[in-house]
Amino acid sequence: MTNDDIPTSQKTRGLVNSLQRNLHWGKSINASLIMINAVLVFNNNGQPRLTKFYSQLDTVTQQSLLSQIFALVSARPASACNFLPLPPLLAPSGATTSPDAPAQITYRHYATLYFILISTSTESPLALLDFIQVFVEALDRLFENVCELDLIFGFETLHAVLGEMVVGGVVVETNLDKIVDGVRTSEGTKGKRKAVNSRDSGASLGRGSGFAALGWATGTGSSWR
């Protein structure tokens, strides 16, 4: 039997199964492809440290959406759940019923930074929380006890980590070792050098003490929720 003799449905299932075999959450295999519409990082003052949209939006809509999302997330108490509905800015003529429309915010708060994902309502919030955790752990390995200042001066490494994990809005890798190795291979020693330079720069500007380490590993105090 040639490839042309295989039904299209079987070809599609084969592609999905192949992708699923390469999509890991920790040591387990995820049951479906995870789609993300945007990845955002804000500090506690609402200043964006990362804004990556995988859906086309005009600049005005993006800015309005960023302001509304930060206002919603920053006002939530530490005891609140980590996912909530998206502000209805992305529906140009009222609410939309499309399952592919962005509709959900999932976030985690680490020390001075909010890590936020925008996705459809069909995505698992728990899987998205795991994605954020892996993202932060990868940054922590590369920057060695990462803090906000590292993301400012090491923005290329920040984007490189995200690029290893997400391509075109599809999560393609969540294995921590593979992500870190991929970034180190592409950047050589630049990631570690940027981390050192960023801390030196913060100290010389007298701002070093204002950028707390994210503290993802211990989860003590207000370092994360």
From TrEMBL:
Alphabetical UniProt keywords: Membrane, Protein transport, Transport
GO cellular component terms, semicolon-separated: endomembrane system
Matching Gene3D superfamilies: 3.30.450.60
GO biological process, one term: protein transport
Record Pfam families: Clat_adaptor_s
SUPFAM superfamilies for this protein: SNARE-like (SSF64356)
Annotated AP complex mu/sigma subunit domain residues: 35-185
Subcellular location, record wording: Endomembrane system
Entries under InterPro entries matching the protein: AP_complex_ssu, AP_mu_sigma_su, Longin-like_dom_sf
Family: Belongs to the adaptor complexes small subunit family.
Protein name, entry field: AP complex mu/sigma subunit domain-containing protein
